[in-house]
Amino acid sequence: MPAALLPTSVRADLAGIVRDIASDVSRWRPLVRFDETERWYTRLDVADDYEVWLLSWLPGQRTGIHDHGGSAGAFAVAQGQVREDTVDQPWSEDLPGQHVTISRNRLAAGTTRRFDGRHVHEVVNDGPVPAVTVHAYAPALDSMSRYRLENGILTVATSERAGDDW
To answer: Fewer Cβ close by (within 10 Å): the C or N end of the chain?
Structure first.
């Protein structure tokens, strides 16, 4: 079943999983690392139908605009705050090359955000202190596309595959 068609209950479970891990400092603090040269991440868990990642963000670090290859997901802010810039139009075959609008939301520690498989966004730590987030995806990520936004037009920059690019 395509991730975008996963039942709401699966996405709700992803939100619960990341919220539980993010709220339990003893589960993530001993593992987290901060890297000045690139955003740090590690996979915490993989199951038959989802995976969980721990990410750290020093001020200024960002993902770039990307999708999740059709996987639904959720993330929770465990420490600090991040900003999510979301492409307002859901992903479709016609989206690249189209004029898009972006919504910005600040997410503080304790906040959980869920999304479907058509979600395209960027996450950035634009605050003054390091941040930590916990992410879950169903099914596990197997591909991602990265996008470029120029003059409001969204274009595909690269496509990445699990095992090859991360």
So the answer is: N
Give dist(CA 151, CA 17) in Å, integer. 38
52 neighbors 21 (Cβ within 8 angstroms):
yes
**CA neighbor of 17 nearest in space, from 42, 65, 54:** 54
Contacts 24+ apart (CB under 8 A), 7-13: 10/49, 10/50, 10/72, 10/138, 11/72, 11/73, 11/74, 11/114, 11/115, 11/116, 11/138, 12/114, 13/50
Q: Tokens for 33?
A: 């690392």
Six-digit token string for 102: 């972006």
pLDDT one-digit tens code per residue, 36-79: 999 999 999 999 899 999 999 999 999 999 999 999 999 999 99
